[in-house]
Amino acid sequence: MDFSVVELDDDLAAFVAEVRDFLDTYVTEEVHDEERRTGGSFNLRLHKALAAKGWIVPRWPVHKGGAGLDRVRERILELEFERVDAPSITLGTTRLVLSAVEKYAAPDLAAELLPKVAAGDVRFCLGYTEPDGGSDIAAARTRAVRDGDEWVVNGQKIFTTGAQNCQYTFLITRTDPELPKHKGLTMFLMPLDAPGVEIGPIRTVGGERTNVVYYSDVRIADRNRLGPVNGGWAVLRGPLDEEHFGGGADGGMSDLGIGTSWARMQGRAVAAAVRWAAAARPDGTRPIDDPLVRARLGEAATDVEGAIATPGPMHRVRVSEVLLGGAADLVDLIGPEALLPHGADGCVADGLFDYHHRFAQGTAIYGGTTEVFRNIIAQHVLGLPRPVYPASKVLTAAGPTRKDRG
Amino acid sequence: MPDLTFELRRNDYSLSDDEESVRQGFAEFFAKECPATRVRAAEPLGHDESLWHELIGLGAVSMAVPEAAGGDGATLVDLALVAEEFGRAVAPAPLVEAMVGARLLARCGGAQTSLAGVVDGSRLVTLALRPTSAGDRQLVPAAAVAPAVLALDGDDLVLVTSGAPGPHVANQGTTPLAWWTPDAGDRVVLATGVAAQRAYATALAEWKTLTAAALVGLADEAKRLGAEFTKTRMTMGVPVGSLQGVSHPLADVEIQVSGARNLVRKAAWFLEHEPAARPELVPMAFSYAARAATLATRVGLHVQGGFGFTLESDVTLYFRRAKGWSALIGDPRRELLAVGDLLAAQTKD
User: Which end of chain A is more exposed for a tag (fewer CB within 10 A), N or C?
Assistant: First the structure.
């Protein structure tokens, strides 16, 4: 057990200063404005500047386009990036898919793409969810049919966040509907500029833009396949497990699960609420002088600390529910001013409370809903019997039929 | 306003080999020596004298005392691990009070004679959890088995010793509670003024941390009892634990308890190594663990249906003590106010 301070020697202090200077330069008010307007969670100038520093893949050696950072410096970079609320979704999905590309892409494809990823020119998004599939991504119906050295893809995906920013989507397809549900799947890196790919924007109440992506007779080369035909589930599980469980222990430099940034986001909201409460109103009184206000702030801070301390798949559920519940509570505490968005007359903390309350709703859905994770906790942590559903292991009538294949 | 400060802390909740062996040693002891039958046999007093002496023999109190004061000098993290296993067994013994009392005596240098008896088990000392004043009575944990009570009486930290422990008062938690008044025996002043306030505040923080750890162990076992039942109990042809109406509440318990465990250990670590750095962690950990114990025992009982509600079911032992232990210090929501008070104080810096 160790919660001690990492001593900042001159070198490390210089690195912190370098990161802060970089973020001041590239994560400007204009970037935040663009983000509020478009919800794209991506900024090209920032992304290219990160690439120039080697910070897309900070642990990679310099000659491969990384920065050769150690884990402490990488952690500093992560936390500082988060602190200034830099747009991060496309960066995150790119890094997530990168590990599957390294592991499963044919050597020539990997040799082509890895340097481009490090240079910021190739970015990846996730093509998992289908409109009638939700979190059950193994039920994918998007079909890929082999035709010589090519595959012909037909179907649609939804919530392909960042597709408008990316060159490829990490696509899960059904290549054999006769096989059991998890066995007939194959993964591809689908070029988003291929003929027959159509991206349609979807806006969310959280302000983010996501997409529906239609695939109509899209022809892609077999070289874009990742891993074996019908072996896609194992290929997908790598990034999925990373998305679900986060990294392991590494000298206390990692979070205990995934989604900790949402708990830290709520931590920043609590800090902003404390500042709001400590400011004097026109009549000279301060909200924080009211014990009810202090108790509620204390509860909110406690929930953040508890979420950060929660391990494994439990972490995933708690961090998003702390943001969800906490953001709603802070609106109640502050009152109608908390609902005023950035730029509105009288908005509090630059509109942070309005934004967080809306944004929070999606966090219990991304990467699998919190119910999926409760199932994981029930089965893998508590050892409870697996529920039996008609389509746990097999495709149901809603899945592709022989007729659809024609 | 730019944030010019920078602090990076490690975030490592893993146990060292030494810590793990302490935890495992006590886990094995309680599993072997303190089955539910022994817990039941000690009711309604909630004290098993021979179990208590076995714990003394294992060094459970001496480990709480610094080496300089003649103890074995374990860390508060070690003590929290022991308290967690103690809670898992809902052991009928005044472990947390004895540990905290011994440490408080050790902190007040002049009380060495009292301390020796506490460490060897010949003398049991407990702690009044609320400041007291003449004629004012309060319920004190373990006062039905301990003849000596440490208390903050006005400006004085006192040790009040009677000829015999107070009469046990029946309580839902089946713990050795007794009503106690400061004028109930011989009064020795151990410290006065600021020194007394500080020593007492530290003892309360330690009591909260170790009780929180015990509540985590209690909650974890209540959850396990509930979960085990649902694995084999069938309804409509499937195990009830496969139904999400049952499994998801149990998952919620796991979420709360696993977080509480780490939060309590973190609070213990800071109390041991950097007590001034994060004082809010103690009230955070206590309220979080109290919430975990309330939730875990409620769900652990409920998922066993009618059986869970019968006296025959062991989860009722846990249900009773969840409040029996956590209610002693007052409303856990007051702890949240204490966190808020610390947040407010920081704004004045």
Answer: C
Say if B15 is an interface residue toward chain A (CB within 8 Å).
Answer: yes
What's the predicted TM-score (pTM) here? Answer: 0.95
Tokens of B346: 């920081």
Residue A18 lies in a domain: yes
Task: To the nearest 10°, report the CA torsion of B312, B323, B139, B186.
Answer: 80
Asked if residue A381 is part of any domain, the answer here is no
Confirm if B141 and B124 have CB atoms less than 8 A apart: no
Is the same domain home to A209 and A273?
no
Q: Give tens-digit pLDDT for B23-77.
A: 999 999 999 999 999 999 999 999 999 999 999 999 999 999 999 998 999 999 9
Is B60 at the interface with chain A, CB within 8 A?
no
Q: Environment class of residue A14 by beta-carbon count within 10 Å: exposed (0-12), middle (13-18) or buried (19+)?
A: exposed
Residues A98, A236: one domain? yes
Do A93 and A83 belong together in one domain? no
Same domain, A210 and A80: no
Q: Are residues A276 and A231 in the same domain?
A: no
Greatest alpha-carbon pair distance for chain A in Å reads: 78
pLDDT at A404: 42
Q: For residue A50, give its domain range.
A: 10-87
Asked if residue A160 is part of any domain, the answer here is yes
Counting one residue from chain A and one from chain B, the pairs whose CB atoms sit within 8 A come to 195
Identity at A316, one-letter amino acid code: R
Cis preceding-peptide flag for B44 (omega within 30 of 0)? yes
Q: Does B17 touch chain A (CB under 8 A)?
A: no
State the average pLDDT for chain A: 93
Nearest Cβ partner of B347 from A1, A278, A378? A278
**ipTM of this complex:** 0.96
Nearest residue, CB atoms, B339 vs list A254, A278, A302: A302
Active site residues of A: 243
Top-level CATH class of B198-346? mainly alpha
How many domains are there within chain A? 3
B249 inside 8 A of chain A by CB: no
Domain holding A324: CATH number?
1.20.140.10
Task: Specify whether the CB–CB gap between B65 and B102 falls below 8 A.
Answer: yes
A-proximal residues of B, 261-290, CB under 8 Å? 262-263, 265-266, 269-270, 273-274, 280-281, 283-284, 287-288
- A214 within some domain: yes
Residue owning tokens 């966090």: A363
- Minimum-distance CB partner of A297 among B238, B263, B340: B340
Averaged pLDDT for residues B153-179? 96
Q: What angle do CA B126, B132, B135 make, to 5 degrees?
A: 110
Residues in chain B with CB shorter than 8 Å from the CB of A288 are 344, 347
Residues 6+ apart with CB under 8 A from B194: none
Nearest CA in chain A to B287: A302
From the list A83, A254, A382, the residue facing B250 with the nearest CB is A382
Q: What CATH number should be reported for the domain holding residue A186?
A: 2.40.110.10
Q: What is the pLDDT of residues A335-385, one digit of tens each?
A: 999 999 999 999 999 999 999 999 999 999 988 899 999 999 999 999 999
Closest CA to B95 of B30, B160, B43, B158: B30
Query: Distance from A9 to chain B by nearest Cα, in Å?
Result: 12
The pLDDT, as a whole number, for residue A132 is 83
Domain range annotation of chain B: 198-346
* Cβ neighbours of B16 in A, within 8 Å: 1
